């Protein structure tokens, strides 16, 4: 899913893919392949910074060395863990939405194997972040998580997703997001540890609240029922 799918592009080709992907994603946010292409073609400097941070972190170095994958065959044991654990919370999040960790588009436009892996890792741990921050996969939840991701990685795609997502809110939802969830997400993204330097799979067996405290995670405030955003495909939010 990483090496064999890669395509090398020159700068003009990258720009063309980025523009085409951006236009296509705006027209159809369900096109996960276009969202992924946009994230890759605009995100190289950000992924390079993430890679350097990972190399300076013990857990980050272990991730780069072992290159764990968040796929069913590797994380399936989470479904058998006690209910209070982080792994069980992740399994519940995935199962309640009928999500599969295998439904990720391949990385195609990263120049090196290391950067390709970092991009794939960011894509695959997205659902761990949903679980830790307690965010739903509707438009408001995805937009709030993208604010946190931008705070953490400075990926242009994250900022584009927030702008595009908020443009689709109703007036009431937009007010709720920018007065309530946007300030929370800024604070949460700044306070928590470096999310790309956590070897999540090694912490599946730990208590969910314990890992939240250890990593400085501030769970999301509850969304009032009358202002909940309509359910939407998570493609716009999660396919970097």
TrEMBL record:
Task: Please indicate if the UniProt record lists Membrane as a keyword.
Answer: yes
UniProt keywords (A-Z) are:
Lyase, Membrane, Metal-binding, Mitochondrion, Mitochondrion inner membrane, Ubiquinone, Ubiquinone biosynthesis, Zinc
Provide the reaction this enzyme catalyses.
Answer: a 4-hydroxy-3-methoxy-5-(all-trans-polyprenyl)benzoate + H(+) = a 2-methoxy-6-(all-trans-polyprenyl)phenol + CO2
Q: Does the keyword rRNA-binding apply?
A: no
> Where is it predominantly found?
mitochondrion
State where the protein is found: Mitochondrion inner membrane
Catalytic EC class: lyase
Q: Which cofactor does it need?
A: Zn(2+)
Which Enzyme Commission number(s) are on file for it?
Answer: 4.1.1.130
Query: Which Pfam families does the record associate with it?
Result: Coq4
Kindly give the membrane topology term recorded for this protein: Peripheral membrane protein
Record's GO cellular component terms: extrinsic component of mitochondrial inner membrane
Annotated Zn(2+) binding lies at: 126-127, 130, 142
Pathway as given in its UniProt record: Cofactor biosynthesis; ubiquinone biosynthesis
Q: Which GO terms describe its molecular function?
A: 4-hydroxy-3-methoxy-5-polyprenylbenzoate decarboxylase activity; zinc ion binding
Which domain of life does the UniProt lineage start with? Eukaryota
Functional note: Lyase that catalyzes the C1-decarboxylation of 4-hydroxy-3-methoxy-5-(all-trans-polyprenyl)benzoic acid into 2-methoxy-6-(all-trans-polyprenyl)phenol during ubiquinone biosynthesis.
HAMAP family from the UniProt entry: Coq4
Quaternary structure and partners: Component of a multi-subunit COQ enzyme complex.
User: Family assignment?
Assistant: Belongs to the COQ4 family.
Task: Quote the protein name from its UniProt record.
Answer: Ubiquinone biosynthesis protein COQ4 homolog, mitochondrial
Encoded by which gene?
Answer: LOC110750355
């Amino acid at each position: 899913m990483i090496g064999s799918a890669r395509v090398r592009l020159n700068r003009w080709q990258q720009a063309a893919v980025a523009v085409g992907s951006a236009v296509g994603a705006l027209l159809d946010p369900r096109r996960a392949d276009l969202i992924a292409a946009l994230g890759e073609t605009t995100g190289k400097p950000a992924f390079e910074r993430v890679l350097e941070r990972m190399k300076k972190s013990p857990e980050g170095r272990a991730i780069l060395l072992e290159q764990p994958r968040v796929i069913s065959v590797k994380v399936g044991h989470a479904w058998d863990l006690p209910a209070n654990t982080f792994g069980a919370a992740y399994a519940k999040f995935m199962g309640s939405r009928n999500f599969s960790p295998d439904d990720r588009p391949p990385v195609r436009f990263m120049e090196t194997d290391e950067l390709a892996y970092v991009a794939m890792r960011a894509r695959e741990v997205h659902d761990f972040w949903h679980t830790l921050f307690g965010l739903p996969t509707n438009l408001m939840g995805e937009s709030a998580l993208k604010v946190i991701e931008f705070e953490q990685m400075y990926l242009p795609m994250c900022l584009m997703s927030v702008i595009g997502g908020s443009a689709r809110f109703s007036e009431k939802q937009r007010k709720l997001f920018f007065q309530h969830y946007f300030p929370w997400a800024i604070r949460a993204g700044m306070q928590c540890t470096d999310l790309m330097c956590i070897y999540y799979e090694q912490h599946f067996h730990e208590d969910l609240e314990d890992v939240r405290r250890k990593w400085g995670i501030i769970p999301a405030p509850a969304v009032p029922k009358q202002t909940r955003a309509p359910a939407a495909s998570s493609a716009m939010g999660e396919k970097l």
